[in-house]
Amino acid sequence: DTEVTQTPKHLVMGMTNKKSLKCEQHMGHRAMYWYKQKAKKPPELMFVYSYEKLSINESVPSRFSPECPNSSLLNLHLHALQPEDSALYLCASSQDYFTSGERYEQYFGPGTRLTVT
Amino acid sequence: AQTVTQSQPEMSVQEAETVTLSCTYDTSESDYYLFWYKQPPSRQMILVIRQEAYKQQNATENRFSVNFQKAAKSFSLKISDSQLGDAAMYFCAYRTNYGGATNKLIFGTGTLLAVQP
């Protein structure tokens, strides 16, 4: 099973709402990633969890709060977002983050399309 | 720092024809991986093909093949017998491959490929 799942597929929220994005993988991967992707642009790395600990935060605003409850699950909590935060949010996983090599490639989920009104 | 450049924002090909997408990169490293990812309108990033810098033989996956020119730092993707399902955004990506390195992907800006029936 090489699948990364994400829920919901679409999310519309107001600027005062609190919502969460969910990502799950069952490949035994120990690294999980959140990316933000604007239309016709490459994904931008936001956060990396390695062995359930936050390893990388690419200077993301605090209105985005990641959480890794266990090695298979990754959440992104959203609060007081701005319209410019509307984007596709991709989750990915890999065997490890602090190791390179063919076995460590990233597998991506289908994404959550977020619209902030 | 490594950079990846895709100079063709959009390309078009007739069904059953062959198309080549260009990618150049800049690095001072000698060992790394290069990837082509496909992102169709369904949004999921799918790994099309990978190439390790130390392997001289160009990678091939069915109708997809690469022309890897290490000295020129060029990594083009050739799609043969193009099909309607090949229509997508294609991203070239770089990842370092030495001990102690991270699994971070560096993406190009993407090429939007249209396939005409």
Give the helix/strand layout.
The complex is a heterodimer of chains A (117) and B (117).
Chain A (H helix, E strand, L loop, with lengths): L3 E4 L2 E4 L4 E8 L5 E7 L6 E7 L2 E5 L6 E7 L2 E7 L7 E8 L12 E2 L3 E5 L1
Parallel strand pairs in A: 2-11
Antiparallel strand pairs in A: 1-3, 3-8, 4-5, 4-9, 5-6, 7-8, 9-10, 9-11
Chain B lengths: L2 E3 L4 E5 L4 E3 L2 E3 L5 E8 L6 E7 L7 E2 L2 E6 L4 E6 L8 E9 L9 E2 L3 E6 L1
Parallel strand pairs in B: 2-12
Antiparallel strand pairs in B: 1-4, 3-9, 5-6, 5-10, 7-8, 8-9, 10-11, 10-12
What is the general shape of chain B? globular
The biggest sheet of chain B, with number of strands, parallel, antiparallel or mixed sense and barrel status, is: 6 strands, mixed
- Using the CA coordinates, give the radius of gyration of chain B: 14 Å
Q: Quote the distance from N terminus to C terminus of chain A.
A: 36 Å
Helical stretch tally of chain B: 0
The assigned structural class of chain A equals mainly beta
- Low-confidence regions of chain A: none
Q: Roughly how many Å apart are the termini of chain B? A: 41 Å
| Largest interface pair | A-B, 27 and 29 residues
Strand content of chain A: over 45%
The number of distinct β-strands of chain B equals 12
> What is the succession of H and E elements of chain A?
EEEEEEEEEEE
Helical content of chain A (DSSP H or I, runs of 4+)? under 10%
Work out the helicity level of chain B.
under 10%
Strand content of chain B is over 45%
